[in-house]
Amino acid sequence: MTLRWNWAGALALVMLASGCISQEGEGEDGPEADAGTADAARPDGAAHPDGGVEADAALPADAAPEPDAAPPPPACDDEDDQAPNQSPRAAKPVEPGFSRDDLYLCGGAQDWFRVTLAAGQGVNVALAADPPETDLDLALTDLEGAPLAESAGEEGVESLDFVAPEGGDFLVRVTGYGDEESAYSLTISSGCRTDDNCPAGSACNVIEGICEPFERADCGRDDQEPNDLSNEAKPIAPGAAIEAVICGPDRDWYAFEVEAGASIDVLVGSDAGSDVDFVVVDGATGRLMGGAANDARFNPERATVSFLPAGRYLIGVTLAAENDADVDYRLEIAGRSGRCALDRDCDDQSPICDVEAGTCAPVQGVSPIGGRCSRGEDCGPDAEGCYVGGPGGHDNYCTVQCEDDDGCAAVGQDLVCARSRGGAVCAPACASDDDCGRTQRCDGGVCRRRDRCETSDDCREGEVCVAGGFGGVCSLPLPPPQCGIDEGREPNETRAQATVIELGASIPGISICDPDMDWYRVTVPAEAAAQVLQVRVDFRRGVDIDVYLQDANGNDVGVAASADRNQEVIEARFIAPGDYLIAVDQFSSDRLEDTAYILSTAVEPNDERCTVAGGECNGTDPLRITCDEAIGACRALEGDGQIALGALCDSNDDCGDDAEVCWTFEGGERGRNICTTTCQSDRDCADVPNTTCQVFEQLQVAVCLP
């Protein structure tokens, strides 16, 4: 049998929602924005390299129990050959690797097994009743029978993980609810963090943290072999790329070293239609640091691990397929230096910033409600799960659902009931803006969204306007990217830093990367009024670049954002004279290296002129509803936040505080581009004149419209 890693499902659970409550709201808005909740219970059998339940009872000095003077007789006619093992003193000695599918629990009895573990050694214990709906329960105890880890669901499929705090003997207990009796299987698998922890003929499943049978595959052979085991990992330096081959039964390991504070980007691109996944683990401890295990629609797969402690790290690559067909892939890593300054700089797997060292660290020990966490196992028994908020470790905390602040005060100090999608959770009260996401500020102990905006001029000093949900939201500025740098044009990551370019110019060889955005400013002269302003960006295949055109007030004038072209073109008709801002954004790339693109602008002659009666401006997209008949050009309405609910608008900043959005999502159909609100039923539209609640399933929103 060849070891298989079920990364596609298990890694997603480990990284995003294994025992966690995950946020799916906009940006970094956390629970104050509409955040999602998931089942806080850990999936059956989903063990983790760091996992297990911390022991809360010391082992007695005598390492092995004394046998009963008279072992009890078999408890029933179907008793198995492990009997007599119905008491802790009569526990049957077994070893990690024990697996039987022909055991039987007699009614009213308990079955006990004794296993010897070294300090730090882990095991996964799995129980399956036959039939599975029979309610059997599982526990691992000390020699006195005090539980150290338990699994007690309503049916008979149970699993637990345990890491021995000290070397010695431990007991496994199988019980039935009431007088239940049943046939059952029991497996005790060796725990592991790296392949070095496993015996010959097996290797470590780093997702489940257990040793599994392993044999080398006959496929997926390349120049990097042998690298099927983590202790055979081939060195790769940050900034390098490796071309390799993999198949379903194959595993490939690579190793890299970093200095303290380094952040690493990893990208794995493969043949079209294939599904290659990867993990990043600490080479010394085997702790999971990150990875990517999406389906075949996500190609390449990419992940970032931030502000690492100095040391050696491993990348494990696998193919989500059962067959032995070879798949070519390309592995790239890129490194960046730096230091974390606060928890918000860290990622979900290591959410705590060690400010003195400038590196991100995992949670140590068990956290109370309101304490930091990466996953459900980090939380104490009173917590329902680990809430994972927006990017950064600042809003990862152990929590329970709540109805009000009084309910949170009952389970922990300095907790507030914060709204989330479908309910609310107890969140630690913030003390300063540093405890919140970049798009939030601390207000009365709660992290709340910063102001809505069209440009950074709408924000407070030190803030910038970023895209988010219905329109922009003010944010603390991001650190400048360490890629996509062009001498003479940088910095130009924000509107305020836009590089001035000449209308009609074509600029080749501009660099960009995923974290980068390039802004430019171009002026349309008066003699070009009502003509067509063209903006074009050319780039290589394998890259997805989007282009945005705005007027000087931050109103959208044009967008080109296709997913499968290597040229994006905006043609804005009925253009008015003045300054325009061009934003070039790399959405994704099949490489970590910088992309080179060409930016061209031009004015194309046009005999058309807008008129109020003709309504030409109502057909512009993005919408600019005001026609300047003197020059025949369309301009965006400048409502300055004074437009009432139900009145015409063409951008969010036109509307008053009562409105959630200027609805412009139907091609500028006049009369429906109004200041309005979202709704759940017609009664929610009473304040928006002459409207009903209309559902847009594709956008997953309902809005009050005429």
Description:
This protein is globular. A hairpin with a 4-residue loop joins strand 37 and strand 38. It has five domains: 12-41 and 342-435, no CATH class; 88-192, Sandwich (Jelly Rolls), CATH 2.60.120.380; 219-336, Jelly Rolls (Sandwich); 495-633, Jelly Rolls; 637-706, no CATH class. The chain is 2% helix and 38% strand. The chain has a five-stranded mixed sheet with strand order 2-4-9-6-7, with no helix packed on it. A five-stranded mixed sheet has the order 13-15-20-17-18, covered by helices on one side.
List the helices and strands and how they pair.
Elements: H1 7-17, E1 20-22, E2 92-94, E3 99-105, E4 110-117, E5 122-130, E6 136-141, E7 147-151, E8 157-163, E9 168-176, E10 182-190, E11 202-205, E12 210-213, E13 234-235, E14 241-246, E15 252-258, E16 262-270, E17 276-282, E18 288-292, E19 301-308, E20 311-319, E21 327-336, E22 352-354, E23 359-361, E24 385-388, E25 396-399, H2 405-409, E26 415-420, E27 423-428, E28 440-443, E29 446-449, E30 452-453, E31 464-467, E32 472-475, E33 499-500, E34 506-512, E35 517-524, E36 532-538, E37 543-551, E38 556-560, E39 567-572, E40 578-589, E41 595-604, E42 626-628, E43 633-635, E44 661-662, E45 675-676, E46 692-696, E47 701-705
Parallel strand pairs: 1-24, 2-4, 13-15, 33-35
Antiparallel strand pairs: 3-10, 4-9, 5-8, 5-10, 6-7, 6-9, 11-12, 14-21, 15-20, 16-19, 16-21, 17-18, 17-20, 22-23, 24-25, 26-27, 28-29, 30-32, 31-32, 34-41, 35-40, 36-39, 36-41, 37-38, 37-40, 42-43, 44-45, 46-47
